[in-house]
Amino acid sequence: MRVTIADVARIAGVSKTTVSRVLNTRGEVDHATRAHVREVIERLGYVPSSGAVGLARGSSRTVGMLVPSLTWPWMGEVLQGVVDTVEEAGFGLLLFTCNRGTDSVARFTSQVSARAFDGLVAVEPEDTLAMLAALHRRGLPVVLIDDRGRHPEFPHVTAANREGGAAAARHLLSLERHRPLVVAGPLRFGCVRDRLDGFGGVYAEDGHPLDPALVVESDFTEAGGGAAVRRLLGEGRTFDAVFAHNDLAAIGALAALRAAGLRVPEDVAVIGFDDIPMAGLTHPALTTVHQPMRKMGETAARMLLAQLTGEGLSGSSVALPTSVVVRQSTVGF
Amino acid sequence: MRVTIADVARIAGVSKTTVSRVLNTRGEVDHATRAHVREVIERLGYVPSSGAVGLARGSSRTVGMLVPSLTWPWMGEVLQGVVDTVEEAGFGLLLFTCNRGTDSVARFTSQVSARAFDGLVAVEPEDTLAMLAALHRRGLPVVLIDDRGRHPEFPHVTAANREGGAAAARHLLSLERHRPLVVAGPLRFGCVRDRLDGFGGVYAEDGHPLDPALVVESDFTEAGGGAAVRRLLGEGRTFDAVFAHNDLAAIGALAALRAAGLRVPEDVAVIGFDDIPMAGLTHPALTTVHQPMRKMGETAARMLLAQLTGEGLSGSSVALPTSVVVRQSTVGF
DNA sequence: CTGAAAGCGCTTACAG
DNA sequence: CTGAAAGCGCTTACAG
After folding, report:
1. Closest to B185 in 3D by CA, of B248, B237, B239, B128
2. Cα of A203 to nearest chain B Cα, Å
3. Residue A209 domain-assigned?
4. Any chain A CB within 8 A of the CB of B2?
5. CA angle A89, A92, A94 (to 5 degrees)
6. B71 lies in which domain range?
7. Which residue ranges does the record assign to the HTH lacI-type domain (chains A, B) (predicted)?
8. For B176-198, what is the mean pLDDT?
9. Which residues in chain B have their CB less than 8 angstroms from residue A278's CB?
10. Measured from the CB, is B28 under 7 Å from any atom of strand C?
11. Are residues B304 and B287 located together in one domain of the fold?
């Protein structure tokens, strides 16, 4: 049925060893022999069994990817970046999620022991950071994509959050907005503190230190962003801009401002963070700090592959630059 | 280093055969023996090597998934449905994309020959339908998730497009909208024709046959949806509703109507199709025909798994019911 | 109920 | 430059 290396060897009149050698372009093989074997391989449409190769070689040429959820707005971009890079290198990508609690985590770790993949790209592990650290200590190459700004003992890629916050501040200042409301994410996240620092630092330097009453913690959701704005307005606070720590919260803020009869951006300019696909489709379209999600995926994958193939001293971590995407929610028409 | 079945056998004082038997709960094993072996497995933290099992058994307990792109708005839901189902069954999920042309297709087909996975879930193959058909003919179990409404020779799951179109019509009619504009998708797609038929059928039955001038072909994009509305308005056409064949086009229509000074839903009600995540976040929030993307993923995965494990006569195809999600773009406040 | 042995399809020293 | 043989870690008739 299936064409095996033995078939190729027999038909080409050489040993399996020789076929293997031309397959892996390792060791010296006579030019004519190589050409002939190649021809037979081609003719038979022979492709080595990945299972057998993996078993014999002790590695699967497969990368694992663990994500908490596949339906988050920016996950598609990350995934695309990882898949493209991994495929390019001739590796496979085994996908796992850990959204069903202990159960899925257990299932996942057993896959690790099963040597189903050689290394792992993990995205923002919720409660699994300790587990990943343990796997890494036991020898599994791991690269983390972490928007939360934690800094584990193994390589990770993140966005330049502080710089992103600073850029948002500079953009608002260039529009003469001196009294911004900050709808922050959960303060336990390192990325949130970084965005806050970068933003506040620029305002302070410019002689407009943030009003502490205008820095509120929220939860990265649309509902949370809306609620924060409504609450502040209800307290009679005034502000001429909103810096939301992610786009969903910014979209919630947009709706709340509109409901309160405020015009965006005339009365209040709004800037988000992430640049998820729907940021360009809101009304008004949302100005935001772009996180290079796809590039983060590509980078993480490349770091992992470098580790697996032994080239390059991967070790280090990376923070990718962000950029402000200007749309109508800050500059009008 | 690695714990193998031989280690377990040695320490438990039994043969590898016996260990294998308790592992696979097949064949009769003495109760006490079984318990003892189980205990040793537990203690050693033994997990069978997936590669070796695959080689010996001739199957990998892995499912392949081929998608054209990971960044489409509804892809995350489909993927989540597939992954959940596949993981639940103890299978792995190998992810492939075919967005880089012939190159990635070639890479993918060689993975098929490599027996890296036992069966395939494919999403809306752009130009790869023929290739998939060939693989299927050669014996690869394939299930297609196809929103385009093609009906290949192998099992596929789709949404009930005709019924969805009819439901949209009934909803608009219940709101006394008798003169709808239809912003259709590309007419070469079966799903588009089905949505059109269902929609037009209900209107005709109700004594309000569609005005052919108000049925325009578009391209499923936001820009296309906006352009269609602008063009019709420019021609001086009047309509009291828009049925867009997907949400992106509906979002474009929303913006074009607003730009023209028309109120939604007072002057023109708008209904889309898909129910992508951002449908609930537009202003006004978009009424739309919900396609059960996650469920489509789950169903396709289940059909494939049934085929792989030999249970159930999978053969047939499935059309999953849609439902109208009513939001402000048709009913106001 | 249990085990020895062959086999899955490769790779890799080792020897020539 | 080339090949015979062992080995990767399992499963599965076959025999008892």
Report:
1. B248
2. 31
3. yes
4. yes
5. 140
6. 59-158+293-320
7. 3-57
8. 95
9. 277-278, 281
10. yes
11. no
